[in-house]
Each structure stands twice: as structure tokens, then as C-alpha cells.
Structure prediction request, 112 residues.
Amino acid sequence: MTDDSAKPWEQIDHDPVSDRRIFKREIAFGQGGFGGHEFELTAEFEVRDGRGRVLARFTESAKGEYWCGAFLWFVKGSDGTRVRLSRSDRREDEVHDVPDTPRRDVTEGERA
Prediction:
């Protein structure tokens, strides 16, 4: 799969306090021979406010022998202000703050 044939955006999490939502789409997936790993995945994530404006964007990849994945979700109790990023090929998760101001470099046309 190439970037031109990326899967559509899918909502994967929602914080009811802030009405923020996390969306994900796979932009590449491969199988076989990735430096000793059988699978490789690249995914893009967006955190959007209740009006659909992009507050944060992450592009992540992961490799795995039997499976692989990249995951993003809201940190419980943060009211949508923090997200946790997890990848199947890394031991530690990362926690990121989500800004209140929409990103200026993301336009509606990019997300279509």
C-alpha cells in the first residue's frame, strides 16, 4: 500500500469531557523481510477538537515478527489534554501533551 492508496480516517477514541477525538489511518503495510521482521506498518494519527480542527498529528511506524501495531489513545483523567503513543516494537510508551490551538499547517483538503 502506498500513500496514494491510504485507508480512510477512522475514529478510534473520544474524550467526552473535551469532545476531542483521535483518528487513525494506515498509510503503508508490508509483509516479509524487513530487517528480520515479518511485518511493518506505518500509520498516521490526528487529535481533533469538537469542530474537527487538527490539534496534533503523529506519523508512526512499527515492525514485528508475528504482528505489529501503532496505537494512540487519551490518557485517562486528562480530559483530552494528553495522549499515550504505543508501538509494538518499542518497550516504552510516550506521553504527549495536546495543544489547545489548532495546527495551521493542516488544511481540510489534506484530511479528505
About this structure: The mean pLDDT is 84. The CA atoms of residues 42 and 61 lie 4 Å apart. The two ends are 18 Å apart (CA to CA). The longest strand covers residues 20-34.
